[in-house]
Design a protein that fits this description.
Mean pLDDT: 95
Distance between the termini: 23 Å
Largest sheet: 7 strands, mixed
Low-confidence stretches: none
Order of helices and strands: EHEEEHEEEEEEEHEEEHHHEEEHEEEEH
Number of helices: 8
Oligomer: single chain
Number of strands: 21
Length: 401
């Protein structure tokens, strides 16, 4: 049985940011990672790029050091940044070590790993913002001859069989995968839901720069905000808009949400035009906020010059026959979920989200870091995780004294 003051479960950017502050406080710790630090970023498709500008790569003590701060680095370079950060910290990481259980004990916690058991006075769970894939039950009712995969498994258009592709889910991943397929001139059907969009650049700046300047990234989230999908935008090709109306105008077949499946027939819901209107409203709210900020602070910014896209879908089909549409593959871009059942305590709410305040849970010695919307809009991002890590370690150090 090994012992340590603090065990950190996960050695991605959140776990490593925690290690930075633990080292600053001279607290003994070890990080457990089922793979290697940074490798989870390689579980994206080949053309994936960071969605926020490179200057947002700002882990504690290790800001972006490249020559293109306003660019968007590709997938493997993101992974390399995390790996370099691990080296910079000389972080005590146990690689290829899966933690399968965490249980309370009288003076801390016991961790069960595939390398043996550990006792720790405190545990920080840093397993990622979106650790487990979610696929709707309808997938089980589809024809077994169809190729089905989650967006996490998607790599490139050529890896899919010839014929049409249905992408289900219009969040960040779904919209970017549709863009990837459309660039390769694949015929695409896109089942869209209630995700907003945002401009990549607006009035002379990237939208991320405006959000930072306006304090949006540091805004404390509400439970309602935490459940909303992020506005879709892309870092590919130097950064660009992803507009559902533009997809429709350029030949992507937009359909409503998948409600039920039976072999090769899907039942669809919702008016596509209503969904498009909702996405536009999110963009209008973002742009309006920037306009007000510019006016209130007397900022010398260029006028808005966004392309107005007025394409409309018209009547929305209620069913889609995959066979007649010659659709041979389905990509489920339907998100992720949490599962903390491996922690032997009632820590999660009815949706599986941990009960916590900025990472501090009601269970003494148990902390979380890197959750989506954990404290601020930026809590799950490179630019925000460091501040949360500092808060958690500050609290933790007081309990270990």
């Amino acid at each position: 049985m090994e012992t340590v003051d603090v065990a950190v479960v996960g050695a991605g950017q959140a776990g490593l940011a925690t290690s930075y502050w633990l080292r600053e406080h001279k607290i003994e710790h070890v990080l457990f990672d089922r793979d290697q630090p940074g490798n989870s970023w390689r579980d994206r498709w080949d053309s994936f790029c960071l969605v926020t500008p490179n200057w947002t790569l700002d882990l504690p003590g290790f800001p972006y050091d490249g020559d293109d701060p306003d660019g968007f680095i590709p997938r493997d370079d993101i992974a390399d940044y995390v790996a370099r950060y691990r080296g910079f910290l000389d972080a005590p990481v146990l690689e290829s070590t899966k933690v399968s259980g965490v249980a309370p004990r009288d003076d801390g916690w016991t961790l069960t790993t595939d390398g043996g058991q550990w006792n720790a006075r405190a545990v920080v769970v840093a397993t990622g913002a979106f650790p487990f894939v979610s696929i709707p039950p309808a997938s089980a009712s589809l024809d077994p001859d169809l190729v089905q995969l989650h967006s996490q498994e998607y790599r490139r258009p050529s890896a899919l069989p010839e014929g049409g592709v249905l992408v289900v889910g219009s969040g960040q991943s779904g919209a970017q995968i549709v863009d990837d397929l459309a660039i390769e001139e694949r015929e695409v059907w896109f089942s869209i839901g209630q995700s907003g969009r945002g401009p990549r650049r607006y009035r002379g700046k990237d939208i991320s720069a405006w959000m930072k300047e306006m304090g949006f990234a540091d805004m404390t989230v509400t439970d309602d905000m935490r459940q909303r999908p992020n506005p879709i935008v892309s870092g590919r090709d130097g950064g660009k808009d992803l507009n559902l109306r533009a997809f429709g105008r350029d030949g992507v077949h937009l359909v409503g949400r998948v409600l039920e499946a039976d072999g090769v027939t899907l039942r669809l819901g919702e008016s596509v035009d209503e969904i498009l209107d909702g996405a536009d409203e999110v963009a209008n709210q973002l742009q309006g906020g920037v306009d007000r900020h510019i006016a209130e602070h007397g900022i010398d910014a260029p006028p808005a010059d966004l392309e107005a896209i007025t394409w409309a879908a018209g009547a929305t089909p209620t069913h889609l026959d995959l066979e007649s549409a010659r659709i041979r593959s389905v990509v489920w871009a339907t998100g992720y979920h949490y599962d903390f059942s491996w922690i032997d305590t009632e820590i999660a709410d009815q949706r599986g989200y941990p009960r916590q305040q900025r990472g501090v849970t009601p269970e003494p010695g148990l902390y979380f870091i890197g959750l989506h919307g954990m404290h601020t809009v930026g809590s799950g991002l490179f630019s925000g995780v460091g501040a949360d890590a500092a808060h958690i370690v500050g609290h933790l150090s007081g309990t270990l004294a």
